[in-house]
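User: Structure with adenosine-5'-triphosphate, tokens only please.
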Amino acid sequence: MAYMVGLDMGTTYTRIWTQEGGIVLRCPSAAAIDSETHKLVALGAKAREMLGKTPQDILAYRPIREGLVSEFEVAARMVRAMFQNKQITSTFNRPVVLMATPYRINQVQQLAAENTVFEGGAKAVAQVPAIFAAAAGAGLRVSSPRGSMILNMGGGISEVAVISSGGIIAAHSIKVAGERLDSAIINYLRQRRNLIVGGPTAEELRVTIGTCDNSLDRGSMKIYGRNARTGLASTQEVFSSEICEAITPTLGAVMKSVSTVLEDVPPEVASDIYDYGLMLSGGCARMPGLADAIHKATGLRVTIARNPRDCVINGLGRLIKHPELWGTALEYRLK
Ligand SMILES: Nc1ncnc2c1ncn2[C@@H]1O[C@H](COP(=O)(O)OP(=O)(O)OP(=O)(O)O)[C@@H](O)[C@H]1O
Ligand SMILES: [Mg+2]
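Assistant:
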């Protein structure tokens, strides 16, 4: 039997699932390449640390943006190296890969994703919507005729779907997730504090003291940045209430996405969803106050999935073992 592998190439993290090992890799989606020799000089966490601070002859990339392949060659090199490191590919061994891609991805984007994985060393590739995999991985009964709803909020995109009988009844994707929240924090600090900070600092603030409930105090954090007026280094203490104020308007788009999908489903399905609630997955699911904020905005009962960050990759594993969960046959394309 073919060697089957699950691949979730996310904006922030790439995850790999294999039949023997389960989740064998969780690694930042980043790679650094020597511009002269074209050799891969760093992968994953090491490459991410190099972003924006490499010497001239080394280029550090994040090849996945908003859930899609944006730097084809780098993405292919990254996948190839990850497959080789985990002994998934070798001279005589090429896997069959089930990969997760965003909902409503166009044909060009689909081909880019597929070719990335072929270049990475796969023998055959099939794509399944990441939001469906997330539902399967969160333990929802995806093949039951009862409607269930899921919101997966990652680093680059948030997707909402209502799933029933092994398919997607209604779904919505928006490019508002962790990174957009970080941009909102960067803009806020610049405007209110005259402080310039970069993406990693904004993310640290969001994860450490971030909340979307202003009655929830997560304390404060001292950060280093640059004064926007003087250009000099500056240290300031930032409070969780400020992060809440900075991200709340941006999060409104995610709430609206949930409401849009709810409006799109037939009344019988909507009633299932009001009975059983919404499952929340993805790296942002654990942000304090998020589940409550969604409840307040939509009236839905919200459950945070177990291991929310691994729902998509666990779902791919579940679909590899039980392909019948996805109502239509998975289309594996050969290279
Ligand atoms: N404990 C936490 N609290 C809040 N946010 C978190 C936490 N842990 C991780 N995150 C955020 O989760 C995001 C990454 O989530 P995830 O791994 O699901 O994304 P991804 O799959 O790489 O991206 P995408 O699915 O959008 O392409 C990052 O923005 C990160 O800051
Ligand atoms: Mg993801």
